[in-house]
Amino acid sequence: MKKLLTLVFILPFFVCSQNVETMFLGFYETGATLENYNIEDQLRTEFSKQKARYIGTYVKLYNNDYNVKDQNFKIKLSYFDSAVKKFGETEINVSLSKNTKMKGFYRGFGYKDPNLWKADTFSVVATIDGKVVGSSSFKIVNRSTSISKVISMKFFEWSGTGTPPKDRTHSQRFKSDTARFIYTDVNIDNPNYNKFEWRAKMTLKYYYPDGSLLLAPEIDMKIPITYKGAILYHGASVAKDYTWPKGNYRVEAWHDGKLMSTNFFTME
């Protein structure tokens, strides 16, 4: 995951009855658990409705009693939606050693299963002993990662070394004694054009002329936000001598357990 600047969440220093200062609040996605050990590398303010489960709040504190005394207290985290309606709260038990100058504390809040958060902007207010020591917000957004339409499937021959050329020669007929890798270009719409960058996943199933499965390569490609559409591609080959049995080969494009498109090529 691309590293984000953690100080995006800088807040004015808040001093409370406990002798600490809040440096910043940040958010991260914890997945199915409430724990995460690389938090500062993963802080962000936007999460997918389709995938988000527990959203963790990370509070970094500066210890004003550094080298003076240990401190033990609780940070209460209150969650509000955009209508300022409180819908939940949780607590962080803080144990701050006098030998620690600054330290981050974290706690997750949310759901065991994905797609239960509503799409909205949420605020989190942190309090210690009833006093507000920090606040910040995050968004839950609708992010579809489903491929809605396959426009076309085309085939091209390639050596399988390096990156395929941009100018490809497509065909549905190949020579069985000279062909090596047969690649499939799958042209799709980008359902998230001008919304967000995402990863498109697809499985191509290649079948021999007798109907048995040859290979099922998996595609996992990043689709930039500026692309109206994209071409997903992967290929297959036979044994090391590259001698393809003659006949008609079927290729199926599968996504999320659904057959999206089918096409055929012939080895002569």
Jot down its keywords.
268 residues; mainly beta; Immunoglobulin-like; 2 domains; 5-stranded mixed β-sheet; elongated
Helix content: under 10%
Query: How confident overall, as mean pLDDT?
Result: 86
Structural class: mainly beta
Instruction: Give the CA-CA distance, first to last residue.
Output: 45 Å
Number of helices: 0
- Number of DSSP strand runs: 18
Task: Kindly estimate the percentage of residues that lie in beta strands according to DSSP.
Answer: over 45%
What is the CATH architecture term of the largest domain? Sandwich
Number of separate structural domains:
2
Order of helices and strands: EEEEEEEEEEEEEEEEEE
The third-level CATH topology of the largest domain is Immunoglobulin-like
Task: Determine and state the CATH class of the largest domain.
Answer: Mainly Beta
Could you describe the 3D structure shown?
By secondary structure, the chain is mainly β. The chain contains no helices and 18 strands. The strands form four sheets. Strands 11, 13, 14, 15, 17 and 18 form a six-stranded mixed β-sheet that branches. The chain has a five-stranded mixed β-sheet with strand order 3-9-8-5-6, with no helix packed on it. A four-stranded antiparallel β-sheet has the order 1-2-4-7, with no helix packed on it. β8 (120-128) and β9 (131-141) form a beta hairpin. Residues 1-15 have low confidence and may be disordered.
